[in-house]
Design a protein that fits this description.
By secondary structure, the protein is of the alpha+beta class. It has twelve helices and nine strands.
């Protein structure tokens, strides 16, 4: 087991398998072809090109990687659409050539504002040092993160497989995250551009209060419905839509029929900055911060202590100083 990536309190799934983590890394100043080639050099596999700004690296020793310029419009294939509509092959080939040229031009322009992203396959948590090596390789190749320009607002995302899909277990982890969310933002020092952007919005205060209240004991349906009512969006610091779609996809799709949601039994943790160009920034540090959430969730006494402190804090006329109070409780636990 890697010392840099310690075990979570519950390292196994309900099926007895080691829990996995998928990592998504955003950055700029390194293109999709160069990034895909780096992944292949590190992990093997074969580069499969959909277009100049969307490539997969398939069959690596870790699984399949997706490398793309994060702008879905660029990946629309007009030639395939023409064939599906019954156009002849010659016209489809013309559209294919035109599509490649327009996609290249659009991607070159968008690359000034839109991050390149590598979506890594889910791997056991104690193999995350492999992704640390990838981050170092991207850094050495010239990739830059969210502090590199006035326009950059790039993130690192963790898709953390759950140990249990029982409603009570999920609720405890959500509560723990809500109680630590302000502390996490301060510990990370989330870049102001990302704080102002809409990609990692904090949760509504009324919803936080509802969930943190010890009297809130929903069943699975109510837990999902309450979340969808308060947070009908993917763009939260902890995105629960993939998890809830895994549990009850029909319920989620009924409320959000057009949202891009990939069901999976994982918390989609979106809060950390991508500081890929900073030599001392490490994925391991962000993993250890996430583990604080899991440890609070698994420590009933600590969770209750934080809940009581939160309720007392909210009763204050001017509720300030919550982060420092969290810090004190965590230190003394």
């Amino acid at each position: 087991m890697s010392a840099d990536f310690p075990s979570p309190p519950r390292p196994l799934t309900a099926e007895g398998k080691k829990r996995r983590v998928g990592v998504e890394i955003e950055y700029s100043d390194l293109g999709v072809p160069e990034s895909a080639a780096l992944v292949r050099r590190l992990f093997g596999g074969e580069v499969v090109e959909s277009d100049l700004h969307l490539m997969e690296v398939k069959g690596t020793r870790l699984g399949d990687f997706l490398v793309e310029l994060d702008l879905r419009l660029l990946h629309r294939n007009k030639a395939k659409e023409a064939k599906a509509a019954g156009s002849d092959d010659e016209f489809a080939r013309f559209l294919d050539d035109l599509d490649r040229e327009l996609t290249k031009a659009a991607g070159d322009i968008a690359g000034l504002l839109v991050p390149c992203e590598i979506a890594c396959p889910p791997i056991p948590f104690d193999e995350l040092d492999e992704i640390e090596d990838l981050i170092a390789g991207l850094r050495d190749a010239g990739a830059t993160g969210t502090d590199s320009s006035l326009l950059a607002a790039f993130g690192l995302q963790l898709n953390v497989e759950l140990a249990s899909l029982e409603t009570d277990d999920i609720l405890r982890h959500i509560r723990a995250y809500f109680l630590l969310s302000e502390w996490l933002r301060e510990e990370i020092g989330v870049n102001l551009k990302r704080r102002l952007a809409t990609f990692i919005d904090p949760f509504p205060r009324a919803y936080l209060d509802k969930v943190i209240d010890p009297g809130y004991r929903p069943d699975q349906a109510r837990l999902i419905d309450d979340y969808l009512t308060a947070n009908p969006t993917r763009y939260k610091e902890l995105d629960l839509l993939p998890l809830f779609a895994q549990l009850d996809e029909e319920r989620v799709r009924a409320r959000l029929p057009d949202a891009k949601i990939n069901p999976r039994p994982a918390f989609h943790y979106r809060l950390p900055d991508s500081r890929i160009d900073q030599p001392h920034w490490r994925l391991a540090e962000e993993w250890r911060r996430w583990l604080k959430v899991e440890r609070v969730a698994e420590d009933e006494q600590l969770l209750s202590r934080l809940q009581e402190a939160y309720l007392e804090h909210r009763r204050q006329l001017l509720p300030i100083g919550w982060v420092e109070r969290v810090r004190h409780i965590l230190r003394s636990a």
